[in-house]
Design brief:
This protein is of the alpha+beta class. The protein has one domain (3-80): Roll (SH3 type barrels), CATH 2.30.30. The protein has two helices and six strands, in the order βββαβββα. It has helices at residues 38-42, 70-80, and strands at residues 3-4, 13-16, 31-35, 45-49, 55-59, 63-66. It has a six-stranded antiparallel β-sheet with strand order 1-6-2-3-4-5. The longest helix is centred in the C-terminal third of the chain and has 11 residues, at 70-80. The protein is globular.
Length: 81
């Protein structure tokens, strides 16, 4: 898997690398889907579907963007909906 910088473009999926102060909402090293939100990304944030199943804004520095095989993308998106 190849990683991509989070701040240069909005990835479709990210891995959490910092869940401090959000232990109930984010799991370290877990893959999360990202909801496109251009305004949030301009502010250095990402709209992430977290453990609640809802999308919330988090600092992009808490995540690393990743590319996934299409079959895995479909599986994760199906679970998130």
């Amino acid at each position: 898997m190849r990683t991509m910088p989070v701040k240069s473009s909005t990835p479709r999926f990210v891995v959490c690398i910092d869940n401090s102060d959000y232990e109930a909402s984010l799991e370290l090293h877990k893959i999360y889907p990202v909801v496109a939100d251009p305004d949030a990304s301009q502010e250095g944030d990402l709209r992430v579907v977290d453990e609640s199943g809802e999308d919330y804004l988090y600092s992009a520095s808490r995540f690393v963007g990743i590319d996934l095989p299409k079959v895995l993308e479909r599986t994760i998106l199906k679970k998130a909906s």
